[in-house]
Specification:
Shape: globular
Bound molecules: thiamine diphosphate, magnesium ion
Structural class: alpha/beta
């Protein structure tokens, strides 16, 4: 027989789930949970400097490992601050568990100090959420939260725990089993066989793969199927790394900032095998004109994704890894030499990188030079903006979970705390965060957390003195009205980083060279490198928002560059 408070039950259940790191910030409404955490020998607490930082640290852990990350916030402002990180996890299907403090049950609905309706506000941005009404409920709710976060299509779960529930003591006989993912759903055989013959008939198929492949651990099956049936593979931003960049069948990213050859190949394909993707507008452009001549096979674990934006000829609802594995032995091998030759021809005609873009003072050259300085198992994190797209375009990603980036929500401020989370999960690996001067300022306070935790992150600022991606759109579509997108103050980021206790370097100081920093990048302590980038360096090619992918502008062989 056990007698325990709700707060202690929470911490013990988290320990039983195997949780070893929690990021958060304490406050009045979650102090009992913090007091129980104080007594834990198994869980390390990471004190973030803003709850959004805590949420993204938990996400960094979850994205790097595939296992759920946990974060804590107090009621009211703590909860509202963490909501952005939860919404971000929701759009990218990342399993995190967020436990918020709430005012005591008797005060709910009275506009008590630091009371907001966290449950209500989190409904649209969580996979599931709970408002716990008794300590006993925790024995059911906490394992259920983990099961839900990790089963099927993963996602964030929020548990709001009133302070009176945290302090309530109950007796109970037995601990519940930890929450584990449910068995995966397998697609129907009849549909699978139809998909196999559709593929066998196709002359110009393309595999279009995304984050679902990463979540299901299906990268090896993508590769095997692609190699056997000679299918070129394009990935979304979330899918980068699932097929190595060096692979001859890799087409890179599709969509708004894809290589021209990739979008043109999609125009010509006769069969689109969409696997673990959701036809996001950044990938498809104007959906009615996406892959105009193609039949569509759509594989996804989440039935609500099928036919949501693009009607499929054959939906295959189930775990994508299982679906691809079942398909692999059944499909005909080879026979698509002409299609592969056509694609090589497009790629030669429209290279993404060429000429002076390889100078290390230019974005592509800088990113490629850094990729050669870091170890192969380094984890790459980005923020949101031009620097994110340049990284997605040219970094040689070789494995799933190598790139951590905010895809669906596109949240500036994601990079630094997510990089800290990744480093906490894999302390022996190098973690490089490519950020922008705008994005870094959204969660710059987490520099303190990185120093305090001695997280081995290298922060590389591509500093163009502007909200670059916004400024680019103003240049192209708003008559060059560069309004509210150019910073008037030149910030000395290295001085700020040093103020937080971090090593810092400036490639703009006239004496520091990138090559001289290889020791600093390898150093396990956190460091920051400021790299001046010309304000007019833009990201090309680009599909104008709302246009069809074939209407992309810029890139080599075009008047824009
Ligand atoms: C929280 C948030 N606010 C606003 C935006 C809109 N936005 C997208 S990119 C961008 C500019 C990013 O600037 P910076 O981080 O310096 O990157 P750059 O594009 O200059 O490389 C803005 C404001 C956003 N994505 N996220
Ligand atoms: Mg910028």
């Amino acid at each position: 027989m056990y007698a325990m408070t709700g707060a202690t039950i929470i911490i013990k259940l988290l320990e039983r789930q195997g949780i070893t790191t929690i990021a958060g910030i304490p406050g009045g409404a979650n102090l009992p949970i913090y007091d129980a955490l104080f007594a834990s020998q198994k869980i390390r607490h990471v004190l973030a400097r803003h709850e959004q930082g805590a949420g993204f640290i938990a996400q960094g852990i979850a994205r790097a490992t595939g296992l759920p990350g946990v974060c804590f916030a107090t009621s009211g402002p703590g909860a509202t601050n963490i909501l952005t990180a939860i919404a971000d996890a929701y759009l990218d299907s990342i399993p995190i568990i967020c436990i918020t403090g709430q005012v005591p049950l008797s005060m709910i609905g009275t506009d008590a100090f630091q009371e907001v309706d966290t449950y209500g506000m989190s409904i649209p941005v969580t996979k599931h959420n709970f408002l716990v009404r008794s300590a006993r409920e925790l024995l059911r709710v906490i394992p259920a939260a983990f099961r839900i976060a990790c089963s099927g299509r993963p996602g964030p779960v929020l548990i709001d725990v009133p302070k009176s529930v945290q302090t309530e003591t109950i007796d109970f006989e037995q601990w519940p089993e930890p929450g584990r993912p449910e068995d995966v759903v397998i697609c129907e055989d009849a549909a699978l066989l139809r998909a196999v013959s559709m593929l066998d008939e196709s002359q110009r198929p393309i595999l279009y793969i995304g984050g679902g492949i990463v979540h299901s651990g299906a990268a090896q099956w993508v590769r095997k199927l692609a190699e056997k049936a000679e299918i070129p593979v394009t990935t979304t931003l979330m899918g980068l790394g699932t097929i190595p960049v060096s692979h001859p069948l890799d087409l890179g990213m599709l969509g708004m900032h894809a290589a021209r050859s990739t979008n043109l190949a999609l125009e010509e394909c006769d069969l689109l095998i969409a696997a673990g993707v959701r036809f996001d507008d950044r990938a498809t452009g104007k959906i009615s004109e996406f892959c105009p001549g193609a039949r569509v096979i759509h594989m996804d674990i989440d039935p609500s994704e099928v036919d949501k934006l693009k009607t499929s000829h054959i939906p295959l609802i189930g775990d994508v890894g299982e679906t691809l594995a079942k398909m692999y032995p059944l499909v005909k091998s080879g026979g698509r030499g002409r299609w592969l030759a056509r694609i090589r021809d497009l790629q030669e005609r429209y290279p993404l990188v060429s000429g002076d873009s390889l100078s290390p003072r230019k974005p592509f050259g800088l990113i490629l030079a850094i990729s050669e300085m870091v170890e192969r198992d380094a984890i790459i994190v980005t923020d949101v903006g031009k620097h994110q797209m340049w990284t997605a375009q040219v970094y040689p990603f070789m494995r799933p979970r190598q790139l951590l980036t905010s895809g669906g929500l596109g949240t500036m401020g994601f990079g630094l705390p997510a990089a800290i989370g990744a480093s906490l999960a894999f302390p022996e690996r190098q973690v490089v965060c490519f950020t922008g001067d705008g994005s870094l300022q959204m969660n710059i306070q987490e520099l303190a957390t990185a120093v305090e935790q001695q997280a081995g992150v290298t922060i590389v600022i591509l500093n163009n003195g502007s909200l670059g991606l916004v400024r680019q759109q103003q240049g192209l579509f708003y008559e060059r009205h560069h309004f509210a997108s150019e910073y008037q103050v030149n910030i000395d980021f290295p001085a700020i980083a040093r103020g937080f206790g971090m090593q810092a370097y400036d490639l703009g100081d006239g004496k520091t060279s990138l090559q001289s920093l290889s020791g600093a990048i390898r150093d396990p302590r956190p460091c920051l490198i400021n790299v001046p980038i010309h304000i007019d360096e833009d990201v090309y090619p680009m599909v104008p928002p709302g246009a069809a992918n074939k209407e992309m502008i810029g890139g080599y062989n075009e008047e824009y560059v």
